[in-house]
């Protein structure tokens, strides 16, 4: 195992106050959650804590609020802000049948919602600039809320933020049940995959994905690249691949449609054909702008083709998960990772700050 993490099950949490860092960054449309996959992923950890009569502060972020909206610069007294975690608080409230009784209140220096006597949710931590700066004083304020820290936010564990890294300096710190599972599954791919191994990468966020794609060449047998990253960096991808010495994967970069918002059906079919020879398939990122139906063709061909294969199939990335759930194919994958960038960084061999902070010393 790449990381030696202590599990939440390794500590007595009975009647303790626990700071649970969770994945709360879910897609919203008109204030409503459109995909709750990430929320369901950490829910077993919350249930474990509650069975042990723990008092839990759930914390996380949503989106990327601009600095002018941060609490230090912009005061607001209600929970209706665009990046508010109110929809997530309501989701949890519905699970515990306290939806109609949510109370917006203060918890030391932080606003949030009281779900019931054992559960509270803090407002979006990224309203504070100090969160992303991993500010020590801010980390202490977070730590002062609890006796134990549990990280079950794999999708954010590649960020050295206060609620991911800084807080671990002040509290006994443990991995949540989902985080442990993510590390186990992805470690198996990194250390001993059933080959051939095919990694399919799509989507946007070009500036972060391109160097990770290059690192995948030493791990995978096939690297298939589509979506916006393929269109913008087709030449760079091929040049970088040619420079690799010794053992390296085969690289296939998809062609885009004329409007550049999807990959061609032929490229999608080629991806499926290559994947047929694989025993392990890892997919991260859609092939088109799947939020619009007219740009889903390539991603749909790929999704339907891969879903029928007998290989061990792993999928990650918020947009990809939301799309697969929408077309009822998410259940066809053997493991659904909550991580997007975190998943790619893990498989590229990078050490994730949030996981390093939890390692047994």
Brief sketch in words of this structure:
It contains 12 helices and 15 strands.
* Largest sheet, spatial ordering of strands: 5-6-7-4-1-8-9
Distance between the termini: 15 Å
Structural class: alpha/beta
At the fold tier of CATH, the topology name of the largest domain is: Rossmann fold
The best one-word shape is globular
Low-confidence stretches are 72-78
Profile the largest sheet: 7 strands, mixed
CATH architecture of the largest domain: 3-Layer(aba) Sandwich
**Superfamily (CATH H level) name of the largest domain:** Phosphoglycerate kinase, N-terminal domain
Radius of gyration, CA atoms, in whole angstroms: 21 Å
Beta-strand proportion: 15-25%
Notes on the structure:
This protein is an alpha/beta fold and about 350 residues long. The protein is about 35% helix and about 20% strand. It has 2 domains: about 10-180, 3-Layer(aba) Sandwich (Rossmann fold); about 185-345, Rossmann fold (3-Layer(aba) Sandwich), CATH 3.40.50.1260. It contains 12 helices and 15 strands. Helix 6 runs parallel beside helix 7, helix 6 runs parallel beside helix 11 and helix 8 (about 265-275) packs parallel to helix 9. The radius of gyration is 21 Å and the shape is globular. The protein starts with 16 loop residues before the first strand and ends in a 5-residue tail after the last helix. Mean pLDDT is about 90; it is low at about 70-80.
